[in-house]
Amino acid sequence: MKIAVTYENGEVFQHFGHTESFKLYEVEAGQVVSSEIIPTNGSGHEALADFLADLSVNVLLCGGIGSGAQAALAGAGIEICSGAAGDADAAVSAYLSGELESAGVNCDHHHDHDEEEGCGSHCGGGCGGCGGGCHSAPAIEGPNVGRLCRTHYRGTLNDGTVFDSSYDRGEPLEFICGVGMMIRGYDAAVANMEVGQSVDIHLTPDEAYGYPDPRAIFTVEISQMPGCEDLQVGEDVVLSTNAGQPIPVKVSARDDMTITFDANHELAGKELNFHIELVEIQ
Predict the structure, then answer these.
(1) pLDDT at residue 213 in the model
(2) For this structure, is 218 an active site residue?
(3) Where is pLDDT greater, at 44 or 76?
């Protein structure tokens, strides 16, 4: 098995799309047998999935990652463990011992999960995840960055439709601020809030889930996917990579021979509004 870690000065680099190098670990029988540092040579987030696939990487450990990059990596069969931090060698050891849990690889909520939804889960279990493109902007700054925050929120579209609410679940969302577990606009707002404060924010797609990524739409032959024969356009299903990583998708088209899936986040391309209340900082 080969494990790649976003790398800088011995530690896990926190922004996948901006990493200038990976540390690549060769693993046999659950033990690291060799490692090397490989520069990306300026490859941006759009090319990094192919870059890692060419290296035959099986697993990626990283900090924050956007939904578009998650979809591309999942399509290449690369397992993602987001939310890693600190010493890179220690992170790999923790992963191999089963002690490192992904912060959320299905950015199916307002992390990106990334997202993708690390990116956390969808707001059904927490408003987490990096949206597409959240790593092309400067790092989040504020007194709450790096701290465990608990927030209540209500998310609405411009027409007033509520797409998610922690108030309805009766449980605040918990995340580490500023490390890529949330979409950028949400993270930036919480970074400067005080406990007990409430704010209302409006986010453009660039600050939320980005724009739909055509690379996240793929077509396969129905004969190659037993069990998909009865799927209909509009259905939501969960596929999995060869590494067992779940990929939430929607059936976008089909004919007698093929079926097309869309792994873009359902809120990609939309402007979002949030009412946020900072409940606690730890």
Answers:
(1) 86
(2) yes
(3) 76
Rg (CA), the chain: 18
| Contact between residue 154 and residue 172 where contact means Cβ atoms under 8 Å apart | no
Number of domains comprising the chain:
2
Catalytic residue among 13, 16, 95, 153: 153
Q: What is the DSSP string of 207-252?
A: GTT-S--GGGEEEEEGGGSTT-TT--TT-EEEEE-TT--EEEEEEE
Catalytic residue among 51, 163, 201, 222: 163
Residue span of the structural domain in which 158 resides: 138-209+269-281
| Residue position matching structure tokens 């098995």 | 1
Q: Which of 7, 16, 209, 274 is catalytic?
A: 209
- 49 assigned to some structural domain: no
22 noted as active-site residue: no
Residues 178 and 254 in one domain: no
Residues 161 and 273 in one domain: yes
For 65-97, the pLDDT digits (tens) are 776 677 778 777 888 888 888 899 999 998 888
274 has catalytic annotation: no
Q: What is the CATH number of the domain that holds 194?
A: 3.10.50.40
Query: Do 275 and 257 share a structural domain?
Result: no
CATH number reported for the structural domain that contains residue 247 in this entry: 2.40.10.330
For the question of residue 183 being annotated catalytic, the response is yes
Classify residue 109: in a domain, yes or no: no
Q: Are 130 and 115 in contact (CB under 8 A)?
A: yes
Overall pTM surpassing 0.70 (yes/no): no
